[in-house]
Design a protein that fits this description.
It comes from Pongo abelii (Sumatran orangutan). It is found in: Cytoplasm; Cytoplasm, P-body. GO terms for molecular function: mRNA binding. Strand 5 and strand 6 form a beta hairpin. The protein has 3 helices and 8 strands; from the N terminus they run E-E-H-E-E-E-E-E-H-E-H. With about 170 residues, it is an alpha+beta fold. The N and C termini lie far apart (about 45 Å). The protein is extended, with a radius of gyration of 21 Å.
Length: about 170
């Protein structure tokens, strides 16, 4: 395959550059549980770089793009990436270009069946419209949460704020 070397991202002890091969998609052995039929141990030639993949991130964002590289930590490089935002029965795609995702942020990685992708009941809308709908939805959720907290407070209960839960 086509070899791409990334300077400074390889093994710091040997000073080797990280090497990513086009069409090489492997995961570390400990992720596959030794199951040779596992998706993680697929034949390298069976994964085409022309296949679209969907990536669900830990923060809830959804990315769709062509998987170009993956390493032993599940770090991903996506090409021609779009961020898809869903609100109700509508969705919008925001072009993001080349996207590098740190493996610890990946919740789900899946190949998209292009034949079924067009059979969606969702309606595609403009970027401006989906962003406005997302803002309205988030504002509605925030107001509902404030009412819930106030109702609990009136009853003598308190819920710790989400931003204080991460403090040690």
């Amino acid at each position: 395959g086509t070899e791409v070397r990334l300077r400074g991202l390889g093994n710091p002890e040997t000073r080797e550059d990280a090497v990513f091969f086009k069409r090489e998609y492997t995961f570390p052995r400990h992720l596959s549980n030794g199951d040779s039929s596992s998706l993680l141990n697929r034949n390298r030639e069976s994964v085409s770089p022309n296949e679209k993949h969907l990536v669900l991130l830990r923060d809830g964002r959804t990315l769709i793009g062509f998987l170009r590289s993956i390493d032993q930590f599940a770090n991903l490089v996506l090409h021609q990436t779009v961020e898809r935002i869903h609100v109700g029965k509508k969705y919008g795609d925001i072009p993001r270009g080349i996207f590098v995702v740190r493996g610890e942020n990946v919740v789900l990685l899946g190949e998209i069946d292009l034949e079924k992708e067009s059979d969606t009941p969702l309606q595609q809308v403009s970027i401006e419209e989906i962003l406005e709908e997302q803002r309205v939805e988030q504002q509605t959720k925030l107001e509902a949460e404030k009412l819930k907290v106030q109702a609990l407070k009136d009853r003598g209960l308190s819920i710790p704020r989400a931003d204080t839960l991460d403090e040690y």
